[in-house]
Amino acid sequence: MALSTExxxxxxxxxxxxxxxxxxxxxxxxxxSLRGRLSQAELRRQVQDLHRVLVAAGEQxxxxxxxxxxxxELRAALTELSRGRARQGxxxxxxxxxxxxxxxxxxxxxxxxxGPNALHDFVAFSKLVDEMGLFTFExxxxxxxxxxxxxxxxxxxxxxxxxxxxxxxxxVPLVGTLDSARAQVVMERLLQTLVDTxxxxxxxxxxxxxxxxxxxxxxxxxxxxxxRLMGADCIISGIRPQIAQTIVALGIEFGDIATKAxxxxxxxxxxxLTGVETARRQQPRRGV
Length: 288
Known about the structure:
With 288 residues, this protein is α/β, with parallel strands linked by helices. It is 64% helix and 9% strand. The chain contains 10 helices and 5 strands, in the order ααααααββαβαβαβα. It has helices at residues 5-17, 19-34, 40-59, 72-87, 92-113, 118-158, 180-197, 214-229, 241-250, 263-274; strands at residues 163-166, 169-175, 201-208, 233-237, 258-260. Strands 1-2-3-4-5 form a 5-stranded mixed β-sheet, sandwiched between helices. It starts with a helix and ends in a 14-residue tail after the last helix.
């Protein structure tokens, strides 16, 4: 909804004629909805920025169309507000209310100004504010989705650590469900660690994986094959009895890939392969 040139001029005059009153009243209304979660100074600065660009859009001598190039500064201000509120943890409702609060201010100003165009102007101004609110809501949602995606990626990386146990041996302890996205991260991190450390052996521990189905098994096999192409042998540990039964029932074959019941067994296996000898404690014999 675009304001005509005349409507834009009257809006600019209305807002600029009582600038201090407009920003103060606007800030007051928004403050009550945010319940002190934003400082008065910061909120007032945001309101003043919106007031300034809105007046500038009305004084430029043309229609106010939020989708037009001439409203780029207004869209930028609304986007900045949305992104800042999303990062600060505010809700979409709390953010858009900060825009819709302008309606209350305009209602008071238009009523006081009166005139034959009062009702027409308020309806037109309200439609513009509604459009600004919707734009703000959409910007907020895009920012929140981007933040959630970034956080999910960070959590995914944290949940798939590749640990260097000692020279030539790395381990990947998997915990939770292994889906396609996470399997890709596991493969990439493992291969990169193999390149960085030059390790010939990697242990993939699935003790923390609650269930192994065909899809999970395929992901593990792909990771093992990729590691072999890099010149590293993989040992899969954490094959519990329930998982072993499931693998047999599904007809999944790991071929010549070494599998162990526990991480400790896998470590002993790698120690033998690397020629490292371990001292075993001798249990004291009981006297007869």
